[in-house]
Amino acid sequence: MKNFNLTVKLLQVLFLIAFTATLSVASAQHSDKETKEDIQRHRAMAAAHEAAAKCLESGKNDEVCQIQLQAACKGLAIGKYCGMKHVH
User: What Cα–Cα distance (Å) separates residue 33 from each residue in 10, 36, 37, 38, 47?
Assistant: First the structure.
């Protein structure tokens, strides 16, 4: 049940990322190239968070999954939580 709750929370985070990205792209005045780069970064961050959810689902330790998330997000987002931190 704990893994299910973590999965639900991570999916909520992914939804929030997508929603925020949509608002950011819609409100910002970027060139086409910058917009495409932003889209790629958001998709990469979402994929990293999805991989973290699958890592937790597999029964791996939270610390192991966090290290994998940090490695996947290196250079993508600000901070060590891939641009986002949620409560535990």
Answer: 29, 5, 6, 9, 21
Q: Strands (DSSP E) along the chain, which ranges?
A: none
pLDDT value at position 26? 55
Q: pLDDT tens-digit profile of 33-59?
A: 999 998 999 899 999 999 999 999 999
pLDDT category of residue 16 using cuts at 50, 70 and 90:
confident
72 touches 48 (CB < 8 A):
yes
Q: Which residues contact 53 (CB under 8 A, 6 or more apart)?
A: 6, 7, 10, 11, 14
